[in-house]
Design a protein that fits this description.
Elements: H1 21-34, H2 37-46, H3 56-63, E1 72-74, H4 80-83, E2 87-89, H5 90-100, H6 110-120, E3 127-133, E4 136-144, H7 145-148, E5 161-167, E6 172-179, E7 193-196
Antiparallel strand pairs: 1-2, 3-4, 3-7, 4-5, 5-6
């Protein structure tokens, strides 16, 4: 029995605004598991070995819907005083650093911070890009802070943009923080491969 014709290319829109937020998030988050070759392609793009296609950002957003590393590690000696402990997870260290620097309010918990960072790449207004650091290829998402961070979670010194970085090496999020201006970022802009550039965003 024929249930219908296959949709044509013009009938399918990869625009998150066209879908229910929860269904959209579940779909995009599942893409890396359903199509592992997409991850390998993103790594090649980050290394400059392939050019991005219009839908590659979907796989990037799915990959970035990842948790932080929850394994405890030794806190650097210079950070132990303000951390209040000798060992902590990457999630705990980055959250405490964000609060100490005024990005986030003291009441924001680890699960809140992780959820905030995991959802940034799914935001319709997020710019997504790939590049390579010394540690290897990474993905990043950049969005206006007011579109991503709830007002009650914002610290007194939070900047205009919120940046989240994902590492292919660890398969986890490695950080999420704010900046006031894109020039404040230590980013190899000439080597960045843009996966999605929203209309409101002007790449440096």
């Amino acid at each position: 029995m024929k249930l219908g014709n296959a949709p044509q290319s013009w009938e399918w829109s990869p625009n998150p605004r066209d879908y229910h937020p929860e269904l959209w998030g579940a779909y995009v988050a599942a893409l890396p598991r359903l199509s592992p070759e997409g991850r390998e392609r993103l790594m090649r793009i980050a290394r400059g070995e392939a050019d991005p296609d219009p839908v590659d950002w979907l796989w990037a957003a799915g990959a970035m819907h990842a948790p932080f590393n929850r394994r405890e590690r030794v806190v650097p000696a210079e950070d132990r005083l303000w951390m209040g402990k000798d060992r902590a997870t990457s999630l705990e260290w980055h959250l405490r650093k964000r609060q100490r620097e005024g990005d986030l309010a003291p009441g924001v918990g680890p699960d809140d911070y992780e959820r905030l960072c995991r959802e940034v790449a799914l935001n319709p207004g997020a710019a997504l890009f790939a590049y390579t650091r010394v540690q290897g290829p990474v993905l990043a998402a950049l969005v206006p802070t007011e579109w991503a961070v709830p007002e009650e979670w914002r610290g007194p010194k939070i900047g205009r943009y919120w940046l989240v970085v994902y590492s292919f090496w660890s398969g986890t999020l490695v950080t999420g923080y704010s900046v006031q201006d894109l020039s404040d970022l230590n980013m190899p802009w000439r080597e960045v491969r843009w996966l999605r550039v929203p209309p409101h965003f002007s790449p440096p």
